[in-house]
Amino acid sequence: MPPPSSSWEFHLPLSPDDLLRSGGPAQYVVQEVLPVGQLAGLLAEFQGAFRMQGPLAILQHFDTLYSLLHHFRSAPAAVKEDALELMMKVVSRHSSDLSSILDDLDLSPSECTTHLNALKMNCYVLTHLVEAFEMDSCKSGLAGVDPNGKSKKSRTMGSGFCWEDERQPLIQLLTQLLQLDLRRLWCGLVVEEEFISLVTSSCYRILEKPSISHQKHRATREAVTRLLAVALTHYNHMLSATLKITQMLQHFEHVAPVFAGAVSLWATEYGMKSMVGELLREIGQKCPQDLTRDASGVKGYAAFLAELAEQIPAIVLSNMSVLLHHLDGESYVMRNATLTAMAEMLLQVLSGDQLEGAARDTRDQFLDTLQAHLCDVNGFVRSRVLQLFTRIVQQKALPLARFQAVVAVAVGRLQDKSVTVVKNAIQLLAAFLSNNPFSCKLSCADLAEPLKKEMQKLQEMRDKCTAATAALITPAEEWEAMEPEVRATVHQLLHPVQGENEEGEEEETLEVEQTALSTAEHIIQLLRKLNYKDAVQLTQKAVSRFQGIEPFTSSSELEGDEETMILGILRTLYTDSHLENNIQQPLPSGGNEDPVIEKQLQSELVKQEMLVQYLQDAHIFAMKITEALSLVSRMMYESSVSVVQEAIEFFVTVSQFGVPQALLGVRRMLPLIWSKEPGIRETVLSAYRRLYLSPSGDSERARAQSLVQSLFLLMTDASLETIQCLGEIISEFMQKEEIKPSVVQLLWEQFTEKVQCSSLERRAAIMLLGMMARGKPEIVGSNLDVLVMTGLDEKVMGDYRLAQEVCSAISKLANSNKPAGGKNCAPFRLPQTHLLFGRLSEVVTEGFAQPNALWIPFMESAVTLIYQLAEGPDEICAQILQCCSQQALEKLQELPGVGAEPGTPPSSVPGGAETLPTFLLTHLISLVGNVALQQVVHLERAVSAELRRRRVLGEEQEAKKHVGSSTKEKSAKGIENETTMEEELGLVGASADDTEAELVRNICETELLDGKQLLSAFIPLVLKICNNPGLYSDPALSAAAALALGKLCMVSTQFCDSQLRLLFTMLEKSTLPGVRSNLMIAAGDLAIRFPNLVEPWTPHLYARLRDPCKRVRQTAGLVMTHLILKDMVKVKGQVSEMAALLIDPEEEIVGLARNFFSELSNKGNAIYNLLPDIISRLSDPDGGVEEEAFRTIMRQLFSYITKEKQTESLVEKLCQRFRTARTERQYRDLSHCLTLLPLSERGLRKMQDNFDCFADKLHDQAVYTSFIAAVSRLRRSVTKLETKALIEEMEQKLHACHNRGMDSTEIPMEPLCKEEGKTPLLEPGKKRQVAVSDRRRHRRPLGTANRHEDSSFVTPQPRASRRCRGAAQRQSSQKPVITFSSDEENSPEDDLYAELTEDETPSKVTPISRASARRAL
């Protein structure tokens, strides 16, 4: 039992243990910490005492509650809950009692001390219970269950107690207590700070829990805010709160928005604006270096500043100066927060046209700061500022005067290296477009014309106003301007030099007028004509004649000074307004205009200047947007999905503002419909949906016409790739039924010419119908007769392109009956007698004898359509082929002299190749090749699929019979039998598939080109044309024959094997780019169909990558890209030829090469494995590339090396490669490659381990500089002392070897060369020139000798000796060296030389010879 409360004082302890130690005779000390078992009974005693004594019962039972706090973790939950409930009642009762006690003026000091001790004890127990429950709640929340092992839900339902529900009334109770005037308990003095800290500490403890920011705890947050507001306003808690808030912001990031809302409330509703200043000053005083190291703390500060500036920007603005130094700090997070606060003030406080001067200056300073940080060193800051400017523009808070400057910087940010910056720059430009104050149409061409016209008008108005202004000059102002010259003239006349007076007297002709007024008028006219001399002389005479008469009178003081007197008279005459009005009335004057008119002129001039300025700004803005278009269009194929999506959205926005160049971007985004990223594909579909599926118009018909016209514009001059991509999009829209029937109806009307339209629009209409038929084939199927009768009528030969598109549209029916759901449906086929095939046969045969370049593309479409849809297409095409060949023979027989000598062979027919129209042979050869290819496709696809379908259908019928005949006795084993049957059927199916494939293969090998077949009759003709390029020199014929040869090779392995030598010889030696391009395509197809046959010829495929013709190089690049990515050719060191395309002068080919390596980088470690060989070949002085080009290629290739293990391994390989390098150029190339790798500590150790490999090369300055650069870059990124020591050691070794090498190279080399009889070494520059010229010689596959030689083509011989030579070289070496696969192969010159040498022939050799042109004569 403690002594009476008036004899002791309860001191709030710094820690609970302090209450167990005596601090003085009058200080309360806990007597005993009671055991847990007694707490329930003692708590009941306290409850009984509370009923008797009220809140003062705590004075006798404090030890009980202290013991509960001491054993809180181990105490029963019921006891803790009862204690909390009891203490809330005690404090509530005490608060009610104190409201009347504090009003008692006769309160004695002893009573005051008693209530103070009770208040402290009650608050101490209650607040510590709050903290204990809060800590217990946090721990149970982390564990997922409460300390007793029960879940929160079960506990809540079992005991009815939930701590989160108890917090709000508890905080409200403490708030009610603090609202009392507690100072009387402290004898009218200030309430001790420890007591306020005791009460508020529970609030801060509650806020530390992350879940407090959830919406369901909003009432608790508001209660805490009000309690702290009372502490701030009544108990001077500002300093403690400031320190506590800053500490919590540093350690608990989630409290930033909570405290921002609280501070905003305190400043606006409680008048605590100084609190904002204190907090901002405290944050502003944080050391920037400390903030850089404390990443978690700075995030809290930044979030708090941003939230606070958004809620109370005006108050933050007045304290903004304390934060500005963070803009120069190292922490980019604080820079972002400060800039965000500035943006909020610009949006909410410093916007509008009614700003005062100081506010306007502040606004301009903030905008200058934001604009400067668009070029911040940190990408996150640049990105954030772009976002802020986007908000400013969207809310129209950016002054018009800054529009152009910010747009220019945003366009510059499009080339930023940070993906996020680029994305936000695109968003900012889109915001500028959407909120531009200029026009809804921003075409530079449309704006330039009115700008020019208005500028001319402005100049005319300025000239007019200048003249009017000149007339408004007062006479006094005019006299002031002319007075110096008049004074000089008076002085000259009154004080003449000898000789001038006589001359002047001779020239005197002026006479004085009859009256003084007329004389004065004459003098004024002379002055206005700037005739000062005559005016002065006339004034002298007038003064002597009209003495004393106005205006020629003067004061008596000036009579002695004649010069001053004359000047005074002249001034009076010119400036006297009364005199001027009397004199000048008869004279014309421009100064009498109405002042109202003059004011109106000035007003119109100002308006015109504003209009011109507006047009200039609009034109500049449109030019900037146009400049941005080219940059954004390149970003559509970036690796970042978000950047690609923003670029697409930007072009949609630009298109809506009528920028003509936007159509290029809209077309450029089309190929993205094939993207593997679903987000990009959906963005493209959404973009075209917004651009084309929401047309403007009053009626359904008008909207359909608008949509069709927009699509026509997109298709105008579009490439084939663009049309294919657009077809995919239209098909997708059609499948989703987003294109309305009115659009389809309008297209049919245009195609059938029911609506007047041009031929181009008609062709575009059928193209669009074909695209729609991909998604909905019945569009074509229900109108097939219309297509045939209209599109393939007698006018078809006048427009083969329309007929070709008709065939393409009808071909969509071939895919209309695909098996769905695993059903075996018969394919859609039309009978041979259908009108479609009759019209196609007629059009093809009738157009065969007509010289039209569009016949071949149409013929290919027609033959393809026949094979897709006809029953028995081979018979139809055989008839077409016979008819066409018969026409050619008839033409040949009509030629004079053909039948004169019956025994003459075809090759020696006089003029056979000269008189027979070449286009006939071209048409015939093209038809043969296409029929052969389509026959193979038909057999391997349609026939094979039909055989498989029929087999499966028969097997299903057999299975049904087998199931129907099974007896009920076998029902127990039904499942097992069924499984066994399915397995057997599966094996039978696999075997049958092989049988069917073998059947088709056998037909192709033995029957299609057999001598009895129709196609075989044309093979000699194709071979003769291909073997006699001198005789058949027409480019179109040669290209068609080459393509036909490739197609015929696709039929049979045997025929392909026998003609590969001819095909590749033509590929190497033909002088026609069309032939080489066609054969490259054919060779690519053969490599897929017969890979084993083509594999020995792979080097000659790579050789075309160096072809002098752009078209052939591009074709070769496309073919090799497909072959390599599909693993149809072995990727060796020859892939360096693909790498060389990265420096091709043609941008399209460079893009193709980049796309190839980008796709190749996705195939595991492909580029990593190929890099050593590529480096070896490209750095070879005999067949590589120039040094600068080599570096450009390597920069691109090394960008794909991202794995650390790959980097380490390449460092080791490159270092070891120095041993086998032969020239200084190779040393420099290898060292430059090392600088492109992101060197790590392990990589540095690898470099150090192989130091001996390159130590002797460090004398070269370029090599030494590269190694130093690689090591220095690593130094900037490491922090370990051990690694820094390793770097210093490496730098010292590099420096030592470089200096030692430099000393050794100072020895003169000429005597050594002379003594040993060697030629002195060339300078590096000269050596490079020789290498370049030599390389150019070897890269030219079409040499003069090859073009003019007439001998037989050289047959390649087997290349089996390469491996033997490589093995012999390895055996003869005396020491092991590091080698790459490229070192073991022949040099590029041997592989790629135009003349096929003996060692380049595959193992199978069948010599052929071509008929010489000279033998034919």
Description:
With 1417 residues, the chain is mostly helical. The chain is built from 66 helices and no strands. Helix 6 (163-178) runs parallel beside helix 8 (218-235), helix 28 (641-656) packs antiparallel against helix 29 (662-668) and helix 53 (1166-1178) runs antiparallel to helix 54. The protein is extended and about 145 Å long.
Short description:
The chain has 66 helices and no strands.
Mean pLDDT: 77
State the total count of DSSP E strands. 0
Unreliable stretches (pLDDT < 50, length at least 5) are 143-158, 500-507, 580-593, 898-914, 978-987, 1304-1417
Largest sheet: none
- Structural class assignment: mainly alpha
Helix count, per DSSP?
66
Shape annotation: extended
**Radius of gyration from the CA trace?**
49 Å
Roughly what percent helix?
A: 55-70%
> Whole-Å distance between the termini?
140 Å
The share of residues in extended strands comes to under 5%
Features:
1417 residues, mainly alpha, 66 helices, extended, disordered C terminus
Topology record:
Layout: H1 39-53, H2 58-70, H3 77-101, H4 109-143, H5 152-159, H6 163-178, H7 193-207, H8 218-235, H9 238-251, H10 255-269, H11 273-284, H12 288-293, H13 295-311, H14 313-318, H15 332-348, H16 357-372, H17 379-394, H18 403-413, H19 419-434, H20 444-471, H21 475-494, H22 500-507, H23 516-528, H24 532-545, H25 562-575, H26 577-584, H27 595-634, H28 641-656, H29 662-668, H30 678-692, H31 700-715, H32 720-735, H33 741-751, H34 759-775, H35 778-781, H36 784-791, H37 800-810, H38 835-848, H39 855-869, H40 873-894, H41 912-915, H42 918-964, H43 974-1006, H44 1019-1027, H45 1035-1049, H46 1053-1069, H47 1073-1089, H48 1091-1094, H49 1098-1103, H50 1110-1125, H51 1136-1140, H52 1147-1160, H53 1166-1178, H54 1187-1198, H55 1204-1217, H56 1224-1235, H57 1241-1249, H58 1251-1254, H59 1261-1275, H60 1281-1305, H61 1310-1316, H62 1324-1339, H63 1344-1348, H64 1361-1372, H65 1388-1392, H66 1413-1416
